[in-house]
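Worked example 4.2. Below are the chains of a multi-component assembly; read each line carefully before continuing.
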Amino acid sequence: MRWVLLVLSLGQFAIAWNAAGAERQHREVTIADPFIELHTGPGKGYPVFFVAERGEQIELKMRRTEWFKVQVARGQEGWVHFEQLATTLDTDGEPFDLPMLGFNDYAARRWEVGALYGDFGGANVVGAYGALSFTPNLSGELWVSQALGRFSDSTMVTMNIVHIMYPDWRASPYFTLGGGMIKTEPKATLVATTDRTDSLALAGVGARVYLTRRFVFRAEYKTHVVFTSRDDNEEVREWKAGISFFF
Amino acid sequence: MESRHLVLLLALTLGVGSLTGCGRDRLVRADDGTQPPVIEPDIERREIEPPRIDTEDFEVGIFAGQISVEDFGVNTVTGARFAYHVTEGFFVELAGGRADTELTSFERLSGAAQLLTDSEREYSYYNVSLGYNIFPGEHYIGKNRAMNTATYVIGGVGKTTFAGDDRFTINFGMGMRLMPLDWLAIHGDIRDHVFDIDLLGQEKTSHNLEAHLGVTFFF
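Applying the procedure described above to all two chains together yields the following structure tokens:
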């Protein structure tokens, strides 16, 4: 019930956000391309229903992914791909700088979140992380992962330091070191077992590739040492790949 | 005579040099310190405002429908979803839902035997999925109204908690997004949740089909 309330309040927030967006001042720009095509929706598949010429004034109303909703002087509203607006001019005749994210923003990123999926010692693992960049090379990551296996399920929380070797390359290898806690719950169908919580340390290597906009692909291999209360420590190997977004 | 000429030339050069080079330097320095500038610059700094355009790539909403839990009947499912639209085609979705399952046929027929406790009977899941809008289009209502639509395929991984255990789950399916307004969408979805379960002795793969309707807001 609580999360229904949470979602409802989020919905409320979304409506309020939209109302606030409607009041926000729109940007007037002049078309510099020979013509722009207005689509009925934000995608290449939606039909073109109107064409506006060079020199016409248009108003930028909102944006969804790579598409801008514009209103032309005669009142028609439609969606234009950002490439057609890349050379527009603002009201002073200066080139209008469209806020599009690129590789430069990737290099200057500060926050990053992502989700990866893979194999944790034979179990399926889904992990999510948040990262903060201290320098272009060095960042700190907080991971929460859940491994679901045949005989047991584990939940892990770890803190990692990541060293990216070539931060100004589109694809770069990285090294990581970290530590944290792991909680292991054996399956209910097994008899005479108890849940246990242990600390662990890990080391890993990986690669990250900048794809487009805020999108980063990343794959990694980590080896974990779980400090169990038994005689010997447990070693677990983990492979993961997934997608991250940066801010 | 020759050397006197040379001395004169050198003296002249020195004099001219001090007047032009070093002298100018001294003059400028004197000017800086004492005299006010002749023209007071009256430049109004132009406020360079970064273009602020409302970006609506996030989607949040709730859904309700029916889920057929293998061996445990068809049950009402409710949930919430959050999506981020990465490009015009791709989006990432985080969703969660829950349902209370009913008795199996065996439990009904045998009368007393109960396979699960009430808390174990609760079916809940979360998943992370990647979707792709394969068929963007329009739907027409009457003569004057058109609605943008998108049919998407979606699949991902997640966790299902059912019968006292967490189970790794794969989900895949199709859905349709109807957009009456730019910030409001109505979803219709069909999803299959697949996981392995060993509750009835032998391990088997269980398919759990879900159909739901939902509403989402873009922000």
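Take a moment to check your reading of the output against the notes. The mean pLDDT of chain B is 83. Residues 2-34 of chain B form the longest helix (33 residues).
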